[in-house]
Design a protein that fits this description.
The complex is a heterodimer of chains A (438) and B (273). With 438 residues, chain A is of the alpha+beta class. Chain A contains 18 helices and 9 strands. Chain A folds into 2 domains: 2-137 and 300-362, Periplasmic binding protein-like II (D-Maltodextrin-Binding Protein, domain 2); 138-298 and 385-433, D-Maltodextrin-Binding Protein, domain 2 (3-Layer(aba) Sandwich). Mean pLDDT of chain A is 91; it is low at 6-24. Chain B contains 14 helices and no strands. Chain B has a single domain (65-267), classed as MetI-like (MetI-like fold). The model of chain B has no long low-confidence stretch (mean pLDDT 90). The chains are: A alpha+beta (438), B mainly alpha (273). Chain B: The chain crosses the membrane at residues 9-31, 68-93, 105-126, 138-160, 181-204, 237-258. Chain B: Pfam families: BPD_transp_1.
């Protein structure tokens, strides 16, 4: 019996073990997210494989799953990934921890000077670049030009939140399921807080003062969140606490929204008649400001980083160089159409007449990204970098906890003042536990 | 209407309603998989539309379904075999030769299921890293075996309890050794129970998503990671996600449907005695 069990066990492990041998050689494992630009990269990658003789193993995961998976592996030096897709939030934090290899040695032909400075700053720590930008985005205002014309309103180049509220009141018609103010309500540091953070900046607020003391009960926060809750209730779609980027995008694309402040990277889809019913009726302007324009539009860059635990650093560098180069942008332009070229990373993309022709929103996007200065995100000085986030490891937890409080206020479970009071206390507690002020 | 007939009618309606309620999400998923991305998010939802196979084609192009499916089958079946192999002797001992602490032991085993898995993620990941088990099928088989063992032991224990002791004793009188007792008497007598336990274990392994997402990258990744790769933070993905989910659950659905009779028999085993 024992012998038979052993035989069975070894049979099971043999079946399980087959296929392992295939993973040997110059095969790189790359972890990425399922965004349209990455899908194009996956489709074009065989060109790099053919040119270099290396192979790529793709691991595609949902953003939050990827973040958890990559953090676990990198923190424990598991060495499972040779290239990982990270955001501008992680790059400086992971760089500081020495989890990533610096990538400022890709060669003179890479043309670092062509990368938009605000993007490069966002991915650096202590002047060293820790990830190369694949595509970057800011936020701006999508609006329905047909509805604006009908109502006799002209959208300014730099609207204020007061103006947005005024227009939302005129353009909301609940009997037609048409809403003036479609914004994110789903709680999460990357969901509702991605909208509320820059809005608070515009109202003159900040997450922390120079001594790292949370500022959530100050006047700008109260004004901003009261404004948000009031307008979302009066002019927003029903059940807004369930709406994140994708839900609002679907609402806007199906003609239910007059205004939507969200990612510049969604412009391509809203302009695509196959995916959007409002492709020819949409126009764009800057993200709203209020008492300041500092930090009023967010900044995010999906980037490629190389974990320090990789044993194939040279091949990995060769790939990230290829996938973020000017030549790659041209390749996408030729193969997938210029409107699909990865936006927001290189000046040369915006100088290209073909891109300008294919993407009428290019100029506004470029200005939004150039103006999104991560090192000067607020009216008053702050000890951190980041616009819609604070680039410290504790922020994910803090941002989500505060987002939940604001969603509770939006759902009417607590008042705005109560929500901010609770948020302030929990943030103070987290910061104290983390050892701030440092 | 006769009160009995009315009662029956009401029960039938309630039964169908409950079944419809449980089945509706699956129906909606299959329906969505034949829509375009824009139709999939349309409000109000569309019931009538021109079906398209586009999503299935895209899903097939972007990922090697067969590779993931084989991993799912090997891992689920492997873990179930291993768990049953360990659980049969354990449940046999507990059911027929209970000691003073058997009940406590059973409860303690179950208590290991009460801790959230993420609590042991880092220790398990380090163990896996040092033993080279990350992204291997055998690694996942071990984890799934340990994960399902308490349930498998519990279920087998309750099924074994239903087998009359006298039959086993009669066997022993005739000179059967413990091995023969289990193999020739206990197992045939409780086969429906063992089958339904194994089925449940396979289904639990098939649907497990936390460990499979965290402990595999590509070589050993099962269908749960295949599904996860079609979810996206930006953009429309419901139709493609539905198509991926439909083909991911199809094998286990067919398998469950074929073994339905066995499953029901097993789950009601001993209930009429």
């Amino acid at each position: 019996m024992q012998l038979r069990q052993l035989t069975l066990l070894s049979a099971v492990s043999w079946i399980a073990g087959t296929g392992l041998a295939l993973s040997q050689g110059q095969t790189l494992t790359i972890a990425t997210v399922n965004n349209a630009d990455m899908i194009i990269m996956q489709r074009l990658a065989p060109k790099w494989e053919q040119a270099t003789g290396n192979k790529l193993n793709w691991v595609v995961l949902e953003e939050n799953v990827l973040r958890q998976r990559a953090t676990t592996d990198i923190a424990t030096k598991g060495g499972q990934f040779d290239i990982i897709t990270i955001g501008s939030y992680e790059a400086p934090i992971w760089g500081k921890q020495n989890w990533l290899l610096p990538v400022d040695d890709l060669g003179a032909d890479y043309d670092y000077a062509d990368i938009i400075p605000s993007v490069k700053n966002g991915l650096s720590f202590n002047g060293k670049l820790y990830a190369v930008p694949f595509y970057a985005e800011s936020s701006f205002t999508f609006y329905r030009k047909d509805l604006f014309e009908q109502a006799g309103i002209k959208m300014p180049d730099k609207p204020t939140y007061d103006q947005i509220a005024e227009y939302a009141a005129k353009l909301t018609d609940k009997s037609k399921e048409q809403y003036g103010f479609c914004q994110r309500g789903k709680p999460g540091w990357g969901e509702n807080m991605a909208f509320i953070g820059p809005m608070v900046n515009a109202f003159g607020g900040r997450w922390f003062n120079e001594k790292w003391e949370p500022q959530l009960t100050t006047e700008p926060w109260k004004n901003a969140v009261n404004y948000y809750v009031k307008n979302m209730k009066e002019y927003g779609p029903p059940g807004a606490t369930a709406n994140g980027h994708n839900e609002n995008r679907a609402l806007f694309a199906t003609g239910h929204c007059a205004m939507w402040v969200d990612a510049t990277s969604a412009a391509g889809y809203i302009y695509n008649p196959k995916e959007s019913q409002v492709a020819d009726k949409t126009a764009f302007t800057a993200a709203p400001m209020q008492v300041t324009s500092n930090g009023s539009g967010w900044f995010w860059a999906w980037s490629l980083g190389i974990p320090a635990s990789t044993k194939k650093a040279d091949a990995a560098k060769s790939f990230v160089k290829w996938a973020t180069s000017k030549e790659y942008v041209t390749l996408v332009g030729n193969e997938a159409g210029w409107v699909a070229a990865p936006p927001g990373t290189r000046k040369s993309t915006y100088d290209n007449p073909e891109y300008q022709k294919a993407a009428p929103f290019a100029k506004v996007v470029y200005e939004s990204i150039v103006n999104a200065d991560l090192t000067k995100p607020t009216k008053d000085p702050v000890p951190y970098i980041g616009i819609q986030y604070v680039a410290i490891p504790e922020f994910q937890g803090i941002g989500t906890a505060v987002g939940q409080q604001i969603a509770a206020a939006l759902a009417g479970q607590v008042t705005v003042e109560q929500a901010l009071e609770t948020a302030q206390r929990s943030t103070e507690r987290t910061m104290k536990q983390a050892g701030y002020p440092k | 209407m006769h009160p009995r007939t009315r009662e029956k009618l009401i029960l039938t309606v309630v039964g169908w309603f409950a079944a419809g309620l449980i089945f509706f999400p699956i129906f909606w998923m299959v329906l969505t998989s034949f829509k375009t991305e824009v139709e999939a998010v349309a409000t109000p939802p569309k019931l009538f539309f021109t079906p398209t196979l586009e999503n299935y084609i895209t899903v097939r192009e972007r990922a090697d379904y067969v590779h993931f499916a084989i991993n799912s089958i090997v891992i689920s079946v492997g873990a179930t075999l291993l768990a049953t192999l360990i659980a049969v002797p354990a449940a046999y001992a507990m059911a027929f030769f209970p000691g003073k602490r058997t009940k406590d032991l059973l409860l303690w085993m179950l208590s290991t299921k009460m801790m959230p898995a993420v609590g042991v993620l880092i220790p398990i990941y380090l163990l896996f890293r040092d033993t080279g088990a990350i992204d291997t099928r055998w690694g996942l088989i071990v984890v799934y075996t340990l994960m399902n063992l308490p349930i498998v032991v519990w279920m087998l224990y309750t099924f074994f309890k239903e087998v009359p002791k006298d039959i086993l004793e009669a066997g022993r009188m005739d000179g059967a050794k413990p091995k023969q007792e289990v193999w020739m008497l206990l197992l045939p007598l409780s086969l429906p129970g063992i089958a339904s336990t194994a089925l449940l274990s396979i289904i639990l392994c098939w649907n497990e998503a936390f460990w499979s997402l965290n402990l595999t990258t590509s070589q050993a990744a099962p269908l749960t990671t295949f599904i996860a790769s079609f979810s996206a933070p930006e953009g429309l993905f419901w139709a493609k996600l539905s198509a991926a989910s439909t083909i991911a659950i199809a094998p286990i659905l067919v398998f469950g449907w074929m073994s339905q009779r066995q499953l029901v028999r097993g789950l009601t085993f001993g209930a009429v005695k």
